Sequence to fold (238 residues):
Amino acid sequence: MSQDLWLQNYDATCRLAQEIAENIHERNRQQRTGGNPAKINMTLRASQQKLKQNIAQLKESLLRASSSRRIMQAEADRRQNLIDDLLTREKQLNATFKGDITEPETPRTTLMAGGAGMSGGDAANPWLVNESEETRGLTFGEIKQQQHRIIEAQDAGLDALAAVISRQKIMGQEIGNELDEHNEIIDDLAHLVDKTDDRIRNETRRVKLVETKSASCGMLVVIVLLLIAIIVIAAWPM
Fold:
């Protein structure tokens, strides 16, 4: 599994800051012993410029990763805290280089860890004092492994979310198919109701016609009977 590029760059930036601290310590030692620190001062200026560029690149890449949601918000906040610690350390190194503040004592274990880290890639984190509780006391390699575990957990969560969305999509398609079938049934019922309504109207018209004809026939019978009665009365001898 490839290592996280941002953590690799952060690792390199921490090593550079540690190297600058060691060079400032050596520069000050030469000044105290009457040596000529001109060469090491040139190296320090170039290293400080490089440190500034590296921190800017870390900030830019973190902003891109956070904007594109390639990392979780909690991880983005943790990395921002690491960058803030680097910026604080950079200001301290610049002030120490210029002589504005006195050089803090560098523990022997930190210097030894810095040298071992440059060769083995698993150096103790030089910012343990300012680091969050999550990474306090961890080596860079352990931080990378922790980051890989976080990414794997995120991937697993995304896979589970994708599976849920896939199931919901299938359910939605099935519901859509059922709705289509129900709509067809409703259309058939509506058509049947229309036909039944037409038949009822036709039958109603026929009934009215029969009633009209029946009434006419009844009137005709009454008239005929009246005529017969008149004839009978007229022919009846007085």
